[in-house]
Design goal:
Homeodomain-like_sf; 100 residues; SANT_dom; mainly alpha; SANT domain-containing protein; Arc Repressor Mutant, subunit A
């Protein structure tokens, strides 16, 4: 899974001297998972943090539908995102958007 910078920092900068965390969900400020295992509130914030506007998201989906996994071509259609940003966006959203 592709992690955001904020998600990575939780694992990299854990400098607490606590040996036993009684409530890790509250300690790390996480949202509990839903019954299906997905966390919709995290998916929404991830999309917002990634800096993709609604128009860019629609362009990505349309372009991906025309030429799947051709991220260089998809980026050229969006014009405001790089190939690497398109790849990262795809992997972050592929489960929730079901691009097939």
């Amino acid at each position: 899974m592709a992690l955001t910078q904020q998600q990575r920092s939780v694992f990299l900068h854990d400098d607490h001297d606590v040996t036993l965390i009684k409530d890790p969900i509250a300690f790390y400020h996480l949202q509990p998972l839903t019954a299906g295992g997905a966390n919709p509130s995290n998916e929404i914030s991830e999309s917002a943090e990634s800096g993709w506007s609604q128009e860019e998201q629609k362009l990505f989906e349309t372009s991906y539908g025309l030429q799947p996994k051709q991220f260089g071509w998809i980026a050229s259609q969006i014009q405001t995102k790089t190939r690497a940003e398109c790849v990262l966006y795809y992997y972050r959203t592929k489960r929730s958007n079901r691009y097939r």
